[in-house]
Amino acid sequence: MILANGLTGCSPTALIKRSLGDELAAQGQVQEEDPGLAREASAFYLKLSESLLKDAPENQKLAEAVGAGLSQYAYAYVAFEAERLAATDAQAAYRTNERAKRLYLRAHRHAMRALELAVPGFRTKLEHADVKQWPLISQDQVGLAYWAAASWGGYISLAKDSPEAVADFPLAYRLATLAWKVNPNYGNGGLSSLMGSFESAQPGGSLAKATQYFDASISISQGKNASPYIAKAESISVPQGQREAYEALLKKAIEISDMYPDLSNQLMRERAQWLLRTAEDLF
Question: How many domains does the chain have?
């Protein structure tokens, strides 16, 4: 009887959408091995997932998958393309960069909306000066907080000419920190790497502390993830003018991507190779 009463308010269409949304959220964790196929499939997957999320905004796993998908698409395909275009076509680079910013914001809105639904007044609490008033993040919400912070940071990194965007940097870092305190191992070390990126980017940040975060990420992933090596090269070696260390880290990332050729590592391999080719521009 309880089950029947629970189903009374749900139309067959709503049940189908909810079921499909749950399945898409689960599929969001599956790694596609072919980068080209992954990019071609991403647009349809993301649009469908967003459509389902509108009808089930309380589905935190789906919101997390959408936030993750949009953030990863923005970083791996759009923002990276803008970087490569900068040397040959400034106008195209600008347009592509603007698109990456919009995608990051879109990801951030989805993740933050889910957090707001789960914890009413989440953003207001996050802005509070009193640490005791900051929102509490449950273990189940770490992924949402991670992608909300990562997409926020991604947007800010591309909008450095916007005082309003830059002013939000401490909040993005705070959000990542709240998630990290709950589960520092989240994302196979991805959250620790994000913490390193935030620490190295903040005014007066400690490169020594950032290095610890990156090294922790490498340890958590058991050296099978190329991403923290690249993040460490860009965030630590570049500001210190250490070209030899920079190139060594990038070569290590390529070595790892060859040993463990999942989609993430293949994409990171492409970035590492490009960074090596353009190292002269940085040193």
Answer: 2
